[in-house]
Design a protein that fits this description.
heterodimer, A: 193 residues, mainly alpha, 9 helices, B: 252 residues, 0% strand
Chain lengths: 193, 252
């Protein structure tokens, strides 16, 4: 299989097919990462585009990244931070806060509902983590990066990444466990009544 | 914060949470969505293309790295066997080298043509080199490898057989160049099958021709004839190169 670095070397020579192959390879993972980070698919798509544009500029300056994977996530992660600091994010957040939550009226298909429910719960628990913990968990579990790569993406020592991941997972486990036992208690009370 | 974390405990936690966390799925972009993204990014890439000047020599080196390891192993084994067997067969009318190296060049090109990595071929063929020039570059790499091994083997034989002269090198180099040049030239004009058929016929002709030349018993005449054959082969190679370059989109 052609490595990312081989593809990028070909792209920097102006190779059209290598460029398309690279975009097809990375569009999905980057979009998934940014969607989980921003929880806004439209904004995620914008930042994916911006990440690729930065990559092309990098190639134009003859500075091909040594580790394409880490480079892409690092740029995407920095773009997220820039976005969170931006005025547009703050105003969008205020607008969204005023919008009342819509009740889901189409819950007849139990499976879809449960899946959606679990997804929402996971999102809720991930959001309860600190920003850096959430980012580490997303990079580790959904993007399947090694601890060393996460350290490279986040400019942190590998030990710190490991420690933060550990505490984030313990916290997640605790929250998920508590929820599960709450669920069981509710179920028992329901059966008694 | 950076306390001593037990690796095993971290692994266990990861294993426990993998399943619940996997429920948080995101939508994968469709093929059409990715194509649309490619379209948006295209003007940016076009600017990169504008700053790039391709080099045939660099492409030769790039292609060189893509030869399968099996090809290298087999080539080394073939030349090792040829070099070890040749000292005992020097009394034959034609040296083993001049019969087998040209056909091995053909076999090498055939193998590399068939086993050319599909994915890489797709990547390579798009731009900036036309497929014909890429194929020729790859063929030239095969020839260069064979010539290199041939020279190394000849060097070894010079130390083993005292009577050997420079003519020996010309005896395998000339038919190899002729067969290669003709294959490259015809392949670009008439296609792969036609090229290989013609090259095989020429190889047989070169074996018969060399047997005839040996009967003349004149080293001078043989040298002139072999030099002529080499020139013809080289001429075909230049013509093939020009034909391939005609499709070249950029100025050399």
């Amino acid at each position: 299989m052609v490595t990312d670095e081989q593809l990028l070397a070909a792209v920097s020579r102006g190779d059209q097919t290598a460029f398309e192959a690279f975009i097809h390879r990375w569009h999905g993972p980057l979009l998934g990462y940014l969607e989980r980070m921003l929880q806004d698919s439209g904004r995620a798509e914008d930042l994916v585009q911006e990440t690729f544009i930065r990559l092309i500029h990098q190639l134009k300056q003859k500075r091909t990244p040594g580790n394409a994977r880490a480079w892409l996530y690092k740029v995407a992660s920095n773009l997220c931070r820039d976005y969170w600091r931006s005025a547009s994010y703050r105003s969008e957040k205020n607008i969204l806060a005023d919008v009342p939550e819509k009740a889901d009226t189409k819950t007849s298909i139990v499976e879809i509902y449960e899946r959606q429910e679990t997804r929402t719960e996971i999102m809720k628990h991930l959001n309860e983590l600190t920003d850096i913990q959430r980012e580490i968990v997303i990079l580790r579990f959904y993007q399947e990066l090694k601890l060393k790569e996460i350290a490279e993406v986040l400019d942190l020592p590998a030990g710190t990444v490991k420690s933060r991941l550990f505490h984030a997972l313990k916290s997640l486990k605790h929250r998920l466990g508590a929820e599960e036992s709450e669920g069981k208690t509710d179920e028992r009370q329901h059966q008694r009544s | 914060m950076n306390d001593n974390i037990n690796d095993r405990e971290l692994e266990r936690l990861e294993d426990e949470l993998r399943s619940p966390l996997s429920a948080y799925m995101t939508k994968s972009p469709s093929h059409e969505e990715t194509n649309a993204l490619v379209g948006i990014l295209q003007p940016e890439l076009n600017r990169v293309k504008g700053t790039f000047r391709p080099s045939v020599f660099k492409q030769c080196l790039v292609q060189f790295r893509h030869f399968h390891w099996l090809f290298w192993i087999v080539s080394i084994a073939v030349f090792l066997m040829l070099s070890l067997m040749s000292p005992g067969l020097m009394d034959n009318e034609i040296p083993l080298y001049s019969v087998l190296i040209p056909i091995y060049v053909l076999a090498g090109i055939g193998y590399n043509y068939r086993s050319w990595n599909k994915e890489m071929r797709m990547v390579e063929m798009a731009t900036p080199f036309p497929p014909a020039l890429l194929l020729l570059i790859r063929m030239m790499d095969v020839l260069a490898i064979n010539v290199l091994f041939g020279i190394l083997g000849s060097g070894y034989l010079f130390t083993e057989v005292n009577t050997l002269s420079f003519l020996f090198v010309l005896e395998w180099l000339a038919p190899s160049l002729l067969v290669f040049g003709l294959l490259a030239y015809i392949m670009l004009w008439k296609g792969v099958r036609f090229g290989f058929t013609a090259a095989l016929v020429i190889w047989l002709g070169s074996v018969v021709g060399q047997t005839f030349v040996q009967t003349l018993n004149s080293e001078r005449l043989e040298s002139i004839l072999l030099a002529l054959v080499s020139s013809v082969g080289f001429g075909f190679l230049i013509a093939a190169y020009r034909k391939a370059v005609k499709q070249y989109r950029f100025q050399m």
